[in-house]
Amino acid sequence: MKHLLTIKELTQSQLLALLDLAKKIKSSPADYRHALAGKSVVMLFEKPSLRTRVSFDIGIHKLGGHCLYLDQQNGALGKRESVADFAGNLSCWADAIVARTFSHKTIEGLAEFGTVPVINALSDLYHPCQALADFLTLSEHLGDLSKVKLAYVGDGNNVTHSLMIGAAILGASMTVICPEGHFPDGLIVNEVQQLAAENGGSLVLTSDIAALEGQDAVYTDTWISMGDQTELYDIEAKFNPYQINQPLMDQYKVKYFMHCLPAHRGVEVTDEVMDGKGSLILQQAENRMHAQNAVLVTLLS
Q1: Which residues are annotated as a binding site for carbamoyl phosphate?
Q2: What is the mean pLDDT of the chain?
Q3: Catalytic residue flag (residue 229)
Q4: Do 158 and 59 belong together in one domain?
């Protein structure tokens, strides 16, 4: 590993090794308290964040490293100063760059023009750190990830892309249930189908909510992604049948609920499910730090 731009850059053994390392760091944090001693990590954020910023900042501190946060008060990266210049300058001082950007091309530019590892903390196409935390969470509850049946319900977005890729590499079964016109990117779907064929996984795309039958966990996200100017009333009628609520969970006997947060309670998911005994949302949030720490230790050790 030189960077973590998307999960599709990882082999199955690399992905499993990251998850195994995350479990070790989580269970024995004292063993890794000096893992990043003398290392500095710059975080570049074009988008606001709670979980990503806090989990990286505190996680780096727990590993003995130093974290510097830079927001973009002057606009997106590349406007005030080119992405190439940003990457080159930061590489003079920092040991790694964590970037949360609007465009995935910005992430790729940082990796191309910098000389230190770059970690994608979210772009318009991918959210690899979230997916790593999600599969870590699933492995803690379900064990062998190749046996997992995961359903995603709602708008096909960057989170969906990373979950599909991760599931395909791990040999898991993934079902993506979206309203017509809101499926994941077609090129990424084709890539995932190939990865699934190579690793013994499967990917099903459908608009039929009944495809939840037999799934181990259901995952949803906001119906409108950050930065999207769509108004809720424009899509509400189309998306309402895809709300995750307790009758739906009971009807299809789905045990676990997942969400990357922030959630709009009463919109894509009800309070009853969010706060129910099968909800894994806080474990997912905690595991962001452990999964990201595994990436940092792997890249910088």
Answers
A1: 100, 127-130, 260-261, 288
A2: 96
A3: no
A4: no
d(CA 152, CA 141): 18
Nearest residue to 287 (alpha-carbon basis) of 69, 136, 109: 136
Query: Catalytic residue at 250?
Result: no
- Based on the residue annotation, tell me whether 51 is a catalytic residue of this protein: no
- Domain hosting 229: range is 130-284
> What CATH code is carried by the domain that includes residue 49?
3.40.50.1370
Kindly state whether residues 61 and 21 are assigned to the same domain.
yes
Q: How many domains does the chain have?
A: 2
Catalytic-residue membership of 130? yes
Q: Do residue 54 and residue 83 come from a single domain?
A: yes
pLDDT tens profile 97-122? 999 999 999 999 999 999 999 999 99
CA–CA distance, 166 with 135 (Å, rounded to integer): 8
Q: Where are the alpha helices (DSSP H) in 144-253?
A: 158-170, 186-199, 232-239, 246-252
139 and 208 fall within a common domain: yes
Given a cut of 70, whether residue 74 has pLDDT beyond it is no
Binding residues for L-ornithine: 158, 221, 225-226
Q: Residues 6 or more apart from 120 whose CB is under 8 A from it? A: 3, 4, 5, 6, 99, 104, 107, 126, 127, 128, 129
Which pLDDT score, from 0 to 100, does residue 23 have? 98
Whether 127 is catalytic: yes
